[in-house]
Fold this sequence. Notes:
Strand content: 15-25%
Structural class: alpha+beta
Helix content: 25-40%
Number of domains: 2
Largest sheet: 9 strands, mixed
Radius of gyration: 23 Å
Distance between the termini: 26 Å
Number of helices: 14
Amino acid sequence: MAQVYPFPALRYNAARVQIADAVTQPYDKITPAMQERYYAASPGNLVRIILGKRESADNNRDNVYTRAASYFSDWRRNGIFAQDPSASFYAYSQRFAVPGSPHTICERRGFIGAGQIEDYDAGVVFRHEQTLSAPKTDRLNLLRATRAHFGQIFMLYSDPQKAVDGLLFGGTTAPDIDILDEYGVRHQVWKVSDPEVLGQVRGLMGDKKLIIADGHHRYETALNYRNERRQQAVDSGEAADANAPYERMMMTFVNMDAEGLLILPTHRVVFGLENFDPTRLAEQACPYFTVKRLPERVDGAGATRLLAETAPERSVLLAATKDADFLLEARPEADSAPGMASLSPRQRRLDVAKLHKILLESVLGISEEDIRNQKHINYVREASESIERVRQGANVAFLMNPVPIQQMRDVAFAAEVMPQKSTDFYPKLLSGLTVYALE
């Protein structure tokens, strides 16, 4: 089943750069303001590689990808990155306050290793979300230029006995890395290179199936790159090598049966629709939802609390518009609504499926293609920000509860997918803690 390998990571040399000033959030979570802040934090900040600034004079010889490769080469040559002498796993702990509940402190544990890249039909790695072509093209260009992985794919596996964590987190040594990120999350990393422990971990992981929690685009990029390199080997007359570096990629493996696994909702904000009418939205939703106009306007905290407390056994959504806010509780008829009939029973139970198929596509007339291309729709983590965007002129914000882990697991292991941006695992894995170089 899952093939997981220790590897000698490239890591920031603490004698040359402050690690806290060099690592970043994942590339797709870096806003323009964050990019500027990262650039200013350190000349060795990883943003220069994973999300560099584009310039008006960019061309085929000098562009964001060639500059990334140049930075990476220079930093290796000048000792900004240093290679560990032995293959290792890297135990990774994240301590964080739950958003909206600052006094609730959790810890999520996992470990970083090199995972074998598998085709989905092999039944080892399972996805749970759809992907978009544009991000994969961007990441493929970066991978071709740098031939390295700088961030980890977030993989879930099942280990009710928590045996893997017991092996990796059994010591009392000080962490190799101990930093706070900009969200107040404490990240700690321990290098584990004891051959006996490495072998035991590999053995325990050998019967696992893996679900991609975060990093679908990067995983499929690595899959495409692997296929490219395989074809290049064939074209040059080389023998196939199952242990070639491009057959693997850097992953963080997290036990879905352990504490600290937190999924946040990703809300939808609809904008730019002509002749949008909140009253008509409520009327057209009525055949499939019990629609209640709220007597008072809600803020982000109020919306989150109301969603969590309302009809936990049924799908419930909150629609915030400029003129009024509505609570929508799904009727049984929602399962037979237009667009829902093509979904499996497990997908019909998803709040996000009802939102997309009934409200976005059928009621508001936003096509599936436009949703994929993010035309008329933004994805927003914070409930308060979603509502604020409506106050500033967006048509409507649809707020929802997070997807339960069991629903996500059922959909993934059935080889089905949810709409993009259905889950938001918090906190994110930092990029730059370890680097997996293919050369």
